[in-house]
Amino acid sequence: MFFDGASNAFGHDIGIVLISPKERCFPFTVRLSFNCTNNMAEYEASVMGIAMALEYQIKDPKVYGDSALNQPRVDYTIVSFSYLMPVKTTKRELINHTPREENQMADALATLASMFEVS
């Protein structure tokens, strides 16, 4: 599964591409109904893509994005929420960074979706 998010003057959108074991592509775009930053759109794309993979009963999804969502942050200020630690670890192990050149379809879907007016 490849994902990307786009947030610009035209809108806030995400692109997701599910790829079957037989290399068949299933592209999806979603317009977000709230204002957000590009990073927030990337997070939304990753979460929605993972949810879609699970909905299609993909047991062990391979997740690829060209953002730095999988980079660990060192400035965590909330230390009392230990139940969040597995989520941090899982996210880091689940999302694989891929170069932008290899994420072109998801990137194009997110960008194109933001250029169309939804009525």
Which keywords apply here?
119 residues, alpha/beta, Nucleotidyltransferase, domain 5, 5-stranded mixed beta sheet, 3 helices, 34% helix, 24% strand, globular
What can you tell me about this protein's structure?
With 119 residues, the protein is an alpha/beta fold. It has a single domain, classed as Nucleotidyltransferase, domain 5 (2-Layer Sandwich), CATH 3.30.420. Helix content is 34%, strand content 24%. It has 3 helices and 5 strands; from the N terminus they run βββαβαβα. It has helices at residues 38-55, 85-94, 104-115; strands at 2-8, 11-19, 25-31, 63-65, 95-97. A 5-stranded mixed β-sheet has the order 3-2-1-4-5. Helix 2 links the parallel strand 4 (63-65) and strand 5 (95-97). The longest helix is centred in the middle third of the chain and has 18 residues, at 38-55. The radius of gyration is 15 Å and the shape is globular. Mean pLDDT is 75; it is low at 74-81 and 83-92. Residues 13-112 form the RNase H type-1 domain. This is RNase H type-1 domain-containing protein. It comes from Mucuna pruriens (Velvet bean). One of its GO terms (molecular function) is RNA-DNA hybrid ribonuclease activity.
